[in-house]
């Protein structure tokens, strides 16, 4: 999916919500555990209940890898289900990969070809040749970690380098890489005040913004500093939606949580 | 496995070689492709032929993920085979993971519990709370990217921060994290001249050194600047060993390549 098509979906649905599928066997309703594939059953119910209110889903790959082969199967089934039932939905593999060139190429193949995701999150520490293999894919996005939502972001990302903080250097440098028009960036909602500076460097690119919800970031602040005329935002919420309830109507309640966020987003979009 | 036990194995085998299992269906001998699990068949043959000359194996997780569920199965079979047939061997998941705390905990579970690796490589960009969940595991090592072997390492890792280059800041900061005695560090053989400075910061920790072989690093240089009285080095070679030949005696030739490196390593150990 192109950025333009994503923007169209956002205006159509009046939502720039991404629902994070951090599906954990220890947290899903226990009655699902007797199903053949509890992870997929949970995801399917969540997707069916929330898809009207969001434009993207973001499976967090760690949660699938943690249960081995079964997890990988459930991940594949989830992406296939999204593609077949809701082809208008944008898909993000939250994988935070990055390695030397020939290895990054393999990761790109895994997420773009084998699993068919529209985008994948990538860590910048290993530099240009670790990211460019992802950027080679047409109509796919590479979502580079810039300033993350966690406390540890202050360990290295905000260090002052030659001219400015490391995360700014990462964003500026990445603009010079091949096919950099396929880049999006991760900027945590917990660091909304940094968004104004970031928008000076990348006025147009989409930002994937985690940290609204369980991590405490504010949607209003994110929009104040980060929204563009083409929106340019995907705001993610995971735990606050998918684990809003562990009773038999968990999906319905997740849907209501997603709708509540969508309504706030529609208000923000009206300001444009 | 503890660092002490690893050192004992190194002196016993007169080798600090790690063989990288970057197993790629496009590069293994074509006659293996008709086997039920060609990736595992290749790995098993390589392991049986090289285990006498090395102390560790390092599957590169990207290569397994690139073929989906089948890859994950082959990876699990490979680790299980190592544990059952060669329990003295140290295992490294070259995964370069790292995410917010609750997600890193899931990756740690995937590699340490589900797959049973002795260690996993982790990227430092997201800081303390992205690495500490790996460090909590007893008798497991977390191998932090410091200065990698690729060209892109010069994009950010060697940037001058407040006081010194970023990779040095990463190493120094990580020493203050909980259970930091479980840390090893990745330092590329292509950057051997940096090792002297690194040893001033971490005189004892093991270093995982990729880049000897296909990437052009020199074993002699690595030892000159990086070896300690307890060795403190695991030098990895992947493609130059496992793809030395694509004929039916590929494993035998891989064994000879591994032995040649082991002989050089024995000479370096004699200098201690």
Automatic annotation (TrEMBL), chains A, B:
Q: In which pathway does it act?
A: Pyrimidine metabolism; UMP biosynthesis via de novo pathway; UMP from orotate: step 2/2
What catalytic activity does the UniProt entry give for this protein?
orotidine 5'-phosphate + H(+) = UMP + CO2
Query: InterPro entries of this UniProt entry?
Result: Aldolase_TIM, OMPdecase_type-2, OMPdeCOase_dom, RibuloseP-bd_barrel
The Orotidine 5'-phosphate decarboxylase domain extends over 16-254
Q: What protein name applies here?
A: Orotidine-5'-phosphate decarboxylase
**Family membership:** Belongs to the OMP decarboxylase family. Type 2 subfamily.
Gene3D superfamilies found in the cross-reference section = Aldolase class I
Q: Does the keyword Lyase apply?
A: yes
> Which SMART domains does UniProt cross-reference here?
OMPdecase (SM00934)
Kindly report, in one word, the top-level EC class recorded for this enzyme: lyase
List the CDD domains hit by this protein, alphabetically: OMP_decarboxylase_like (cd04725)
- Keyword list, A-Z: Decarboxylase, Lyase, Pyrimidine biosynthesis
State a single Gene Ontology molecular function: orotidine-5'-phosphate decarboxylase activity
Tell me which EC number(s) this protein carries. 4.1.1.23
